[in-house]
Design brief:
- The protein is an all-beta fold.
- The chain has no helices and 11 strands.
- The protein has strands spanning about 5, 10, 20-25, 35-40, 45-50, 60, 70-75, 80-85, 90-100, 105, 110-115.
- Strands 2, 4, 5, 6, 9, 10 and 11 form a 7-stranded mixed sheet that branches. A 4-stranded antiparallel sheet has the order 1-3-8-7, with no helix packed on it.
- Strand 9 (about 90-100) and strand 10 form a beta hairpin.
- It is globular.
- It starts with a strand and ends with a strand.
């Protein structure tokens, strides 16, 4: 089955850190650019980061630049998002997606990140 499965979300205090993971199966993720998208409750999806197939080019939205780091391990068919200095407004469901930004064609079910004191 072709799918993406996210993990690593949880409840974190402001200023804390998390590492999200995304495991790809049923296809060779190394052949695809990948992205992270988040959606806060009551809001639309927000693209936050993308990485090209080889991992050499990374992209971030202005709202997360300097705090989020995207990476991938193609040998493990996996994608990661390191989130530092978490803010209340980072609370959202985080999804990994196949594609870089405007052509994402496969999404996971998401992992919830809650930032609260």
């Amino acid at each position: 089955e072709v799918q993406l499965v996210e993990s690593g979300g949880g409840l974190v205090q402001p200023g804390g850190s998390l590492r999200l993971s995304c495991a790809a199966s049923g296809f060779i993720s190394a052949s695809y650019d990948m992205a992270w998208v988040r959606q806060a409750s009551g809001k639309g999806p927000e693209w936050v980061s993308g990485i090209n197939s080889g991992g050499g080019s990374v992209y971030y939205s202005d709202s997360v630049k300097g705090r989020f780091t995207v990476s991938r391990d193609n040998a493990k068919n996996s994608l990661y998002l390191e989130i530092n200095n978490l803010k209340l407004e980072d609370t959202a469901v985080y999804y990994c997606a196949r594609g870089l930004r405007y052509e994402m064609d496969l999404w996971g079910k998401g992992t919830l990140v809650t930032v609260s004191s």
